[in-house]
Specification:
6 strands; alpha+beta; six-stranded mixed sheet
Length: 131
């Protein structure tokens, strides 16, 4: 039901200029981040309704902190090109990053989250958490 609602609203609301750390349609936190296409644009994806919106790559998806000093990356050896995580030293949160050509279908967002559970373990070992 949330996916259908988000698809409807997504057609009538301009999301191109939304650059906040929460879903523009339902207000939920992002589930993950996608790096899409050849240009490498970053889109956050909502954990509840599946909506995607563009967000700066060098900015924390939760507290909004910018720059290399507070942001870091983690990955499992051999998967860096497909899966990794962005960490924030300021708020101690992290978000998973999936590199993909096309947007992940909303129904498959939980599957991608499970496929990257090993990143959760790496983050927890380093004292980072998800909201």
């Amino acid at each position: 039901a949330m996916y259908a609602w988000a698809q409807y609203l997504g057609r009538i609301i301009d999301l191109d200029h939304w650059q906040r750390a929460y879903c523009p349609l339902c207000g939920s936190a992002p589930a993950l981040s996608e790096i899409q296409g050849k240009e490498g644009a970053r889109r956050l994806r909502c954990s509840l309704c599946g909506t995607g919106w563009y967000y700066p790559r060098l900015q924390c998806a939760f507290c909004g902190r910018r720059g290399h000093k507070s942001l870091g990356y983690m990955a499992v050896e051999g998967e860096e090109e497909k899966y990794r995580g962005q960490t924030c030293g300021s708020c101690r949160r992290y978000i998973k990053i999936v590199v993909t050509f096309d947007p992940i279908l909303p129904d498959l967002l939980p599957v991608e989250d499970l496929a990257t559970v090993h990143l959760d373990f790496v983050a927890i070992e380093r004292d980072f958490f998800r909201p």
